[in-house]
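Task: sequence design from structure.
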């Protein structure tokens, strides 16, 4: 399979072929996503929560994002690799944003970076990063990095004011140069309007039908403990399977039944004698 490119993603939108994106935070997940044939892999800052145990995405650092991104890069061949930039690493200035984006390209060979928000300042960052030659995926609707300002982790675009703001911002991020847009937790009727107005591929999460879908890997695998968002579907129960496997291992160690003879090395009689001497 040839490497997925920006023109290929645009072609998929034009042909009505759904784009499949999934998050990954380490090498084995990247391998699994690659073997499953996904189009795009996202090193989401959701990794702050799902693999690093933070309570929100805002505390993750660029060094942490890069450690995850480099591992994912090593496992990714044909899928298009997008990396989230950490909160606080693009907010100060266009220069800061370009420097951050450059690190993901140089150190993790990211194909693109993803940037949340569509305010004037964010549009300026998108223009600056695109001008530096780095493709940008925009992210609108529920933007977890600024969820506190949005009133919490809740759906966006359900009121007249927020719905028209999302449509305006979507058009603006496309005009600023984003080649793709992720929309999170927005009613499908509003997303349908965005799709009519825009020509770039729209990837939805909690956004109904779109040109593509993205889910957090651990949510779809059924690893995440506790409640999951309304828009998540678990396609596995890997969390339970993991606990069961570790429990079986613990029980066999405690019972003395693991390791068995088949897990042990044999020594020559001379080696045993020498060890005893
Ligand atoms: O961090 C993440 O996983 C994301 C997706 C939910 C789009 O931004
Ligand atoms: Na994210």
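Answer:
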């Amino acid at each position: 399979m040839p490497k997925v490119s920006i023109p290929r993603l645009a072609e998929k939108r034009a042909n009505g072929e759904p784009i499949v994106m999934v998050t990954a935070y380490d090498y084995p997940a990247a391998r699994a996503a690659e073997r499953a044939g996904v189009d795009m892999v996202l090193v989401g800052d959701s990794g702050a929560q799902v693999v690093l145990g933070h309570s929100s995405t805002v505390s993750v650092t660029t060094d942490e994002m890069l450690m995850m991104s480099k591992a994912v890069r090593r496992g990714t061949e044909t899928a298009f690799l997008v990396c989230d930039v950490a909160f606080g690493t693009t907010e100060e200035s266009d220069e800061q944003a370009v420097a951050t984006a450059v690190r993901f390209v140089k150190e993790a060979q990211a194909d693109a970076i993803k940037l949340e928000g569509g305010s004037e300042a964010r549009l300026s960052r998108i223009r600056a990063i695109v001008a530096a030659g780095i493709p940008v995926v925009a992210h609108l609707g529920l933007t977890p990095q600024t969820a506190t300002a949005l009133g919490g982790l809740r759906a966006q675009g359900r009121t007249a004011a927020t719905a028209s703001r999302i449509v305006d911002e979507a058009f603006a991020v496309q005009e600023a140069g984003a080649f793709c847009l992720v929309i999170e937790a927005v009613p499908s009727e509003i997303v349908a309007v965005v799709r009519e107005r825009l020509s770039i591929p729209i990837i939805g999460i909690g956004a109904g039908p779109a040109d593509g879908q993205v889910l957090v890997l651990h949510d779809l695998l059924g690893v995440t403990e506790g409640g999951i968002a309304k828009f998540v579907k678990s396609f596995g129960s890997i969390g339970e399977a993991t606990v069961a496997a570790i429990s079986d291992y613990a029980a066999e160690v405690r019972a003395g039944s693991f390791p068995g003879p088949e897990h042990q090395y044999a020594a020559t009689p001379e080696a045993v004698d020498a060890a005893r001497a």
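Strands lie at 19-23, 40-43, 80-84, 112-116, 136-141, 180-184, 202-205, 212-215.
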